Amino acid sequence: MQLLGIDLGGTKIEGVLMSPDGDIRRRERIATSRDGYAALLQQIANFIDELDPEGNLPVGIGTPGAISPHTGLLRNSNTTCMNGQRLLEDLAAICRREIRIANDANCFALSEARDGAGAGATTVFGVILGTGVGGGIVINGQCLAGAHAVAGEWGHNPLPWPQPEELPGDACYCGRMGCIETWLSGTGLAMQHAQQGISSIDIFARAQAGDGECEALIKTYEHRLARALASVINVVDPEVIVLGGGVSNAGRLYANVPRVWGEFVFSDSVRTRLLKARYGDSSGVRGAARLWE
What we know:
This protein has 293 residues and is α/β, with parallel strands linked by helices. 33% of the residues lie in helices and 20% in strands. The protein contains nine helices and twelve strands. A five-stranded mixed sheet has the order 3-2-1-4-7, sandwiched between helices. β8 (123-129) and β9 form a beta hairpin. The N and C termini lie close together (10 Å).
């Protein structure tokens, strides 16, 4: 049976038909509707019907935020019209199909653990370093959702082992100060440069070209990332940490960060591997499809 997955993003919706062995049979992308919740539901339903006109396949959907196990309502989504809505029930009704929904970072982690960079590892921590910072935990090939559906949400913990100049940190949209997301997201990195309007991609490129200010900023970023991931290793102790999101394309991270994190890991050695995602920005939709395996 083919697997049908949808990655519901703030700017685009991606859908795939995939075989169980990971072969993509069809892939489509459309721009996400900005006309409100009802219009978005209808757009998703139409997109699913286009991918599977016969209506036989169940659907796995990855979305920012998560459905509260206590209220059944979606929360913490940057597609804000979905917050406070019964997304699962509403989609099942309009699509007339069986649907499973998971956080997009969990879908990313699941994809990379099953047949991506973390394949074969017992415990994988999947990291999104993009506009925000997210994470997902996969153990023995299964996502760990947690009692509150927030397992892996390391981005809204404070930056560990803070330096004096890092306190109290910038305000985060969650209402707290100094969250890891404010330091390690691509957006957060860009805001730390004196020149406003420069992107995180530009900062890495300028550092590679010899810009001293950007190089210093990237070294500080690597140290912060090492501290933040060391705290994950101390709690989860994964065999593999897989990076995704725009910042993950900076190849220097995979050598430099592990050189630092040993100082902060509560162990005499660190064997956790830091790897780049195999499937890039398509890992999320692949993981969504695998929610029905």
